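User: Hi! I'm working on a homework problem where we have to compare a predicted structure to a textbook description. Could you give me the structure for the chain below?
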Amino acid sequence: MNILEKIIQHKRKEVSDAKARTTVRDLESMPLFSRDPYRLKDFVFDPARNGIISEFKRASPSKGMINKHSKVEEIVTAYANNKVSAISVLTDSDFFGGSLDDLLAARKQVNVPLLRKEFIIDEFQIIEAKAYGSDIILLIASCLTPAEIIQLSSSAKNLGLNVLLEVHNEKELADNLIMTVDAIGVNNRNLNDFSVSLDHSLNLISQIPDQYIKVSESGISEVDTIKKLKTAGFNAFLIGENFMKQESPQQAIANFVSELAE
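Assistant: Happy to help. Predicted structure tokens:
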């Protein structure tokens, strides 16, 4: 069993337990459930912003603990102050050290789109995302069938949420070019062995229709990489551990954005 299969197996039990603790009605009664989510497109194509989707992530299965000292409120505020187009917040606990409380804390601090970075396999998780202040949900093609992606993305759109579909190869992309997806992200990290190559993005960009926001994900640590990806046709760039692994993620994002603007 590879790590992705292990995560999904664990996620099924986790979702079942969450349903036993909390009802859909409970989630729908939370204050943030009634807010109108931000549109990702408005922030990605805002010329005053830089297209970066920066991430708050404490740990990962491949790297272990990345950052155990930074507070989510401080980091997301620094991200927002540096004109990112969105902020990704890991909510998986067992493998990434995150929680829905991190998402809630981030929502209280910033007025930019928030992505619930999670392994979504059930509509219940989408309702959770809305209740805790998310604007965007992530669907990972390698975890879901095309029929499940249609069902889950439709549920998200009915709640006013943006949908980011993550793909790894040509087949996953071709099988899921649907109207209920707003953005397509090409993950440069192989989720089976965690190797990283920008070729994943560069090889697929020409096959992503222009109706979608085009996102390159993972393995981005240099300003020149963003410039290369932008020239290739990408609109947004999800940067995960590059900032979080620094002693001061706040200074790291400031330095990166300053260099990008030069």
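For your comparison, note the following. The chain has one domain: 3-261. The first strand starts at residue 52 and ends at 56. Good luck with the assignment!
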